[in-house]
Write a structure and sequence with these properties.
- The chain has 201 residues and is of the alpha+beta class.
- It has 2 domains: 72 residues, Glutaredoxin (3-Layer(aba) Sandwich), CATH 3.40.30; 109 residues, Glutathione S-transferase Yfyf (Class Pi), Chain A, domain 2.
- The protein contains 8 helices and 4 strands; from the N terminus they run βαβββααααααα.
- Strand 1, helix 1 and strand 2 form a beta-alpha-beta unit.
- It is globular and about 45 Å long.
Length: 201
């Protein structure tokens, strides 16, 4: 196998953390999708990371697809619960965290455009998604030790990646002060080697 990633992509990082938690050895190929010489489109027709090339030459893309595949090939540290109701709740958390990342990435891309071409309305719209998403996660977490209320899972990985991406790209967004439950979870996740070893810089 070979995993294609961008160093700052929260979606690629999510898969890298899954690899670490599952103790799966996999070569990493760094790609910068926005550069003209990037080879990512040779693996993923959508031109996005992450992409996982399997040993038979086939390629998986989308972090959720890759993460679930990796969870299925190793019994170590199951990240997707077997019980259906808990699995649905876990997937909901992952979708919410990924949605926050999508909104954040959309803002980053918009701000790369020339200043006179940027849409403040679009940026405000995406920013509101982030604010609502953080509030919902903090509320839903409540007194739970882990996002799905059962055990450490892909939900916690996705949330941790989203929070660190906000820290990387939106340092002015002081989400910790108003979201103490998320802050506590983030501090706990930050102590895991899989998180500290993949922290975006």
């Amino acid at each position: 196998m070979k995993l294609l990633v961008s160093p700052t992509s929260p979606f690629a990082r999510k898969v890298r953390i899954v690899l670490a938690e599952k103790k799966i050895e996999c070569p990493i190929q760094i790609e910068h999708p926005w550069q003209a010489d990037s080879a990512i489109s040779d693996y993923n027709p959508l031109g996005q990371v992450p992409a996982l090339e399997l040993d038979d030459g086939s390629v998986l893309f989308d972090s959720r697809v890759i993460a679930e595949y990796l969870d299925s090939i190793s019994p170590v540290s199951r990240l997707y619960p077997q019980e259906r109701r808990v699995l649905i709740d876990t997937r909901r958390w992952e979708a919410l965290a990924d949605g926050i990342c999508n909104a954040a990435v959309a803002i980053v891309i918009e701000k790369r455009r020339p200043a006179d071409k940027q849409s403040e309305e679009w940026i405000t719209h995406q920013h509101a998604k982030i604010v609502r998403g953080l509030a919902a996660m903090n509320c839903d977490l409540g007194e739970r030790l882990w996002c799905n209320g059962e055990a450490y899972s892909i939900a916690d990985i996705a949330v941790g990646c989203a929070l660190d991406y906000l820290g990387l790209r939106f340092s002015e967004l002081d989400w910790k002060t108003s979201h103490p439950k998320l802050t506590a979870l983030h501090e706990k996740l930050s102590t895991r080697p899989s998180f500290s070893d993949t922290l975006p810089a």
